[in-house]
Design brief:
Bound molecules: 4'-deoxy-4'-aminopyridoxal-5'-phosphate
Strand order of the largest sheet: 15-23-22-21-18-16-17
Strand content: 15-25%
Shape: elongated
Number of strands: 28
Distance between the termini: 74 Å
Length: 758
């Protein structure tokens, strides 16, 4: 090759024995030519007639820019025939050759950039865009590059090349957001020819000032704001707080080309889109050619920026961008006015969390976005089990809603498919499922079914237990009927003392306490002079203050309940679907198999779903009664959503994540327990934990302090809650995509709060 080039350079330019160095390049070959101290760039391409038109267009644009005296851009150099492209055989293959002037400077990516550099970059890119705005070229207008943000969708098939499912789904999330937030306004954006690749390895710096830009191979006719998005994307790679680095660039750009509010409102999504393109292209390139390192040069930075990006509130980002250019920020109604409006139609009986309520406009995975622009870490909500707005779940629902939504009186495959997939998660003896729309209806139905089976209306329930808001669910919920304002315990309800090994009377949690508590429960039945038809409990009593049943409790109690003619129900509304880490269902930790299981909350990741799973025998008894029908239970949309939730748990290994992150999380709290005597107990399993707050060194509850910690955490943009009979147990049960870093952040903030207090 070099000898071919030497001959060419001699023939065309009369260069005698120039120095020729191969440079890095994405898909063509670039050479540095040094002749008598003067430097040039020679670019060679495989011949392609369509691409020749593009190269021709690129040269024309560069010449038009040079005519406008735009500095810091390469200048095309003509060959002996006066043309700027040369067609020639290189190594026996038809090729296209270009010669460009050489630009001095260091790459932005290779120098520690200061804020002054970003200011300079803003002005430089704006001046370049001003120059490009007068360029017309119909070849470039018709280009559809997959690196061009407006054609993000071209990258969709490449998502599959990304190895890790969590990463794939993060990218899918931003594709979805692009469709929601950018696509509708794309047609109304101002467009022009843009450089299209102002990345840190195409930009040259000299003494903190941008001196040039190279590689016009991505010239395209695109919304102008895409140029800004691309330049910003690369400028804050590897920065701890990306947003901090945007203001100088934007302000400087805006002084030359004023930016519009609607452009800045979507900039967050455009930057995310460019990051997504980058990771899709890297993954694809690695798949096609595992040895091509150049293609994945920025992959690591792109991923880490994308992960930081999702923790930023899009409204907060837009506000930062607008502030940088002195554009007004859209005002949101005050919390007071929102509360007032709400209470005009909604009773205050529906309580609102935290002293300072949250007004939310969006959420993504383990983050929630407040209308004021703040992002909060959600360490509390277990309904968005696989993550808020999870793209697979959203898409499954959207797709099915656009296709068919009906009820179980018709035949559709999704009902059978979901039932099979859900039941596969249970012991074969639990072989029938009834779908409803929430945990309350599931509890209600379970009790009705139990009665149909045993004909015995008496039910043994758990002290402090909660199972829902229907009349039957309240009847079996000590947490409700025993409340100061509750209606009291009905005559058919018996209550088992909570098998709590921290505060309760039996404390040796090696099976001893479990057995004794089971005996106590049977004593309650015995003392009543009755038998029970059913026994219902959660495996970790949530409203009781995240109290795990003492070890061995159900192993002793279930057989005794069955022996006196009752059936055993596990309420897995909180603990199911992998949350407890070691097991998919909470009861498995107790080594038992219930006769019925109640499901809810996480089942649809926020889409309202509930179910009762039971044995054939229970189902048979229920079948002898009146028809069961739920208008919405088991509808095709819910089934599609339910399937997607199961798939995401599987592909993102979320049960394992709950176990690993949960163990770290608990160990962080146990460290805090050593430091602060007000932490009496740390308990739970996986990502379902409780931290009991007590008067220092005693086991007396301190609800005031627990409430203070909860609200202080909220003020620090972290959501946890309190529960338990004295409301003194800090409760955390985040979406299962929660990371170890998130767990550490929660524990560290709690440490700071406690340090301030003690
Ligand atoms: N069972 C348990 C254990 C619950 O925590 C809840 C809700 N908090 C329910 C049942 C009732 O579920 P839903 O609110 O969906 O009706």
């Amino acid at each position: 090759m070099i000898s071919d080039l030497k001959a060419l350079l001699k023939e065309e330019f009369g260069f005698e024995n120039p120095e020729i160095k191969l440079l890095a390049g994405y898909f063509n070959l670039n050479y540095l030519i040094i002749h008598q101290g003067e430097k040039f760039i020679l670019k060679t391409y495989r011949f392609d007639s369509e691409y020749r038109d593009v190269l021709q267009a690129e040269n024309e644009v560069l010449l038009q820019l040079a005519n406008q005296k735009i500095t810091g851009i390469p200048r095309p150099i003509h060959f002996s025939d006066g043309q700027f492209l040369l067609q020639r055989q290189l190594e026996g293959k038809p090729s296209i050759i270009r010669m460009l002037s050489y630009l001095e400077g260091e790459f932005l990516g290779s120098v520690p950039a200061s804020k002054a550099t970003y200011k300079s970059l803003g002005s430089f890119v704006a001046k370049l865009n001003l120059g490009l705005s007068t360029c017309k070229n119909y070849v470039l207008r018709s280009r559809q590059l997959d690196w061009d943000i407006q054609y993000l969708h071209l990258n969709k098939p490449l998502i599959a090349a990304i190895g890790d499912a969590k990463n794939q789904n993060l990218v899918r999330y931003f594709f979805l957001q692009f469709g929601e937030n950018v696509s509708p306004i794309l047609p109304s954006l101002r467009r022009q020819i843009i450089h299209g690749d102002a990345n840190e390895w195409n930009i040259l710096v000299q003494n903190d000032v941008i001196s040039g830009i190279i590689d016009f191979g991505d010239l395209t006719y695109s919304p102008l704001i895409n140029e800004v998005a691309i330049a910003l994307t690369y400028s804050f790679y590897d920065k701890e707080n990306p947003l901090e680095w945007t203001a100088d660039f934007l302000n400087a750009y805006h002084q030359i080309i004023p930016l519009e509010s609607k452009e800045l409102e979507i900039l967050y999504y455009l930057i995310a889109a460019r990051l997504c393109i980058s990771v899709c292209q890297s993954a694809h390139a690695r798949k096609v050619d595992p040895k091509n390192n150049y293609a994945s040069i920025s992959e690591k930075s792109a991923w880490s920026t994308l992960r930081k990006w999702v923790a930023i509130n899009p409204i907060g980002a837009a506000n930062t961008f607008k502030k940088a250019v002195n554009l007004p920020i859209s005002e949101t109604p005050s919390l007071e006015s929102q509360l007032q409006r709400r209470h005009q139609s909604i009773s205050p009986l529906l309580s609102i969390s935290y002293k300072k309520p949250l007004s939310v406009t969006g959420a993504a995975f383990q983050y929630m976005y407040e209308s004021n622009g703040t992002a909060v870490l959600d360490a509390y909500n277990n309904i968005p089990h696989v993550g808020h707005s999870h793209p697979k779940v959203v898409e499954a629902g959207q797709r099915q809603m656009a296709k068919l939504n009906t009820n179980t009186r018709y035949l559709y495959d999704l009902l059978a498919e979901y039932s099979e997939k859900l039941l596969a998660k249970f012991h074969p003896s639990l072989s029938k499922v009834y779908f409803v729309n929430c945990g309350s209806s599931a509890s209600d139905l379970a009790i009705r079914m139990a009665f149909a089976h045993t004909k015995n209306p008496n039910i043994l329930v758990m002290e402090h237990g909660y199972h829902g808001n229907t009349q039957i669910s309240i009847d079996i919920s000590d947490y409700k009927f025993n409340n100061k304002k509750g209606l009291g315990q009905k005559s058919n309800i018996l209550k088992a003392p909570i098998p709590d090994t921290y505060l309760g009377k039996h404390k040796i949690n090696d099976g001893t306490a479990g057995k004794l508590y089971a005996q106590d429960a049977m004593q309650v039945i015995h003392d009543s002079g009755k038998t029970v038809g059913a026994f219902i409990t959660e495996p970790i009593v949530g409203c009781g203050g995240q109290v795990p049943l003492a070890e061995g409790y159900l192993q002793h109690l279930y057989p005794a309940i069955r022996a006196q003619g009752g059936i055993c129900i596990s309420d897995e509304v909180q603990t199911g679907f992998g949350r407890v880490g070691d097991y998919f269902w909470g009861y498995e930790a107790q080594g038992v198999i219930p006769d019925m299981v109640v499901l809810g909350k996480p089942m649809g990741n926020g889409h309202p779903m509930g179910a009762v799973v039971c044995t054939e025998a229970v189902a048979d008894s229920f079948s002898k009664g009146v028809e069961f029908f739920s208008s919405f239970g088991g509808n095709p949309v819910s089934c599609a959503v339910g399937i997607s939730v199961l798939e995401v748990i599987e592909e993102e290994k979320l049960q394992e994540n709950a176990r690993i992150v949960g163990n770290h999380y608990a160990s962080f709290f146990r460290e805090l327990q050593k430091e602060f005597a007000v932490i009496g107990d740390v308990r739970g399993a996986g990502l379902f934990l409780g931290v009991e707050i007590v008067k220092a060194g005693k086991s007396d509850h301190d609800s005031e302090l627990a409430t203070l910690i909860k609200n202080e955490m909220r003020n620090r943009n972290i959501l946890i809650s309190t529960d338990g009979p004295f409301d003194n147990v800090l409760k955390t049960k985040p979406p299962l995509c929660f990371t170890k870093e998130n767990a550490e952040e929660v524990a560290e903030n709690m440490r700071e709060i406690l340090k301030e207090k003690f």
